[in-house]
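Field reference: "sequence" (input) and "structure" (output). Example, Flagellar motor switch protein FliN:
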Amino acid sequence: MNSDTGHMGLEDFATSAAATPAAAATEPADKDATTVGASQMEAVYDIPVKITAVIGTATMPVSQLLRLGRGAVVELNKKLGEAVDIYANNRLIARGEVVVVDDNHIGVTMTEILSSSPTQQG
């Protein structure tokens, strides 16, 4: 984890995610409590999460917006090649790069997972 920025790299994220279940598995626990915990987690896995990748934003007066027509170019606040912001249910969770998935689709590769600590985000 990069302590200067509070950001977690993909390697750190994978390591911490992999270490958590292993640590929990080594602790002695009541078998019924483990079953209840697992079934509660199964319910969480089905909750839909809206993922949004924002390539940039622009602000303009309504009068300028109304003058836009087919072929108009709206300049965004980000530069070409700059990281895009990735949101989960309107909460910034990561940054990434736009990639081509196939001939007709684009995707986003997550290059930086942001810390979930509210004091680290800002």
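Residues 51 and 88 are 5 Å apart (CA to CA).
The helical segments are 10-26, 31-45, 62-67.
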